[in-house]
Each structure stands twice: as C-alpha cells, then as structure tokens.
Design a protein that fits this description.
alpha+beta; four-stranded antiparallel β-sheet; three-stranded antiparallel β-sheet; 45% helix; 24% strand; elongated
C-alpha cells in the first residue's frame, strides 16, 4: 500500500503568496482608480484612510491571507491519495472520499481548483479524484497514473 500525503505547509505558503499578491494588487489598483477619478486629489482619495495607515492595510491583507491559507491547507491534509491492490482512493472536488480501480482511469489533466493547481484523475462514471500538486512523491504517483491513462 502506498500513501501519498499532502505537503500542507508548502501548500499554505503557496496559497498565502498567491492570495496576498491578488488582494494587494487589487487594493492598489482600486486606490489608483479612485485617485484618477477624484481628479488626482490625494486628500479626496484617502479621505477615509490616512496615508500613513496604508502599510497597516497591506499587513492586514497579509495576515488575512496567512490565516485563510492555513485553514484551507489544514483542511486539505485529508486529501491524501492511497494506492492499494490496483485501487486508488482520494478526495473529489467536494472532499468526499472516492475509490476506483486504476484500470478505470480514462484521463487525467491539470486543473486550477479555485486558484490551487491540482491534477484531476477522471474515471468516468466512477467519479474523479483531485490530487494537489503539492503532494509527497508526486513524480512517482503521476508516473503510476500515466501508465493507466487511456
């Protein structure tokens, strides 16, 4: 029996970085649009927030991203993949446990599940398993899956 655990700490770092960048760039673009729409007036643009509080906003964005990423990655620790007696078991998109024979695999493909890259192993009517790319021994696991792909 082979068990492939999710590297949840690596996943948390990745998600923190991605979410922080997305939110920080979004906030900066929003402030830039507001600055242009108010006629290039710094006082009107930042009337609800002082200019010296902007670093605190970015710190808040980072802390929110860190907390959210930690919670999601801790939840995804249960997404381990097990191969036992030519049967693969793992979690689907909704984190429900799925299990099917390796020979039932029809295709596998890369997918971005809400910004997190995963490999979807599709067994047609038997369902599918979502495998995070941040998983132990991923090269070994994906080489095994490639053998069974039709």
């Amino acid at each position: 029996m082979a068990v492939y655990e999710v590297k949840w700490k690596e996943l948390a770092k990745y998600m923190t970085r991605q979410l922080s960048i997305t939110l920080a760039v979004g906030f900066a673009v929003l402030m830039l649009i507001r600055y242009v729409s108010t006629g290039f007036s710094i006082e009107t643009t930042f009337e609800h927030i002082h200019l010296n509080h902007i670093p605190l906003v970015f710190l808040g964005i980072f802390l929110f991203s860190l907390t959210f990423a930690f919670l999601i990655s801790a939840l995804l620790r249960c997404a381990r993949v097990t191969i036992n007696n030519e049967t693969i078991s793992g979690r689907n998109y909704w984190l429900f446990k799925k299990e099917f024979k390796l020979e039932d695999i029809e295709k596998s493909f890369l997918f971005s599940s809400n910004g997190m890259p995963v490999v979807v192993v599709d067994a047609g009517k038997n369902g599918d398993i979502y495998i995070p790319i941040h998983i132990e021994n991923s090269e070994e696991l994906f080489s095994i899956l490639d053998k069974y792909q039709k």
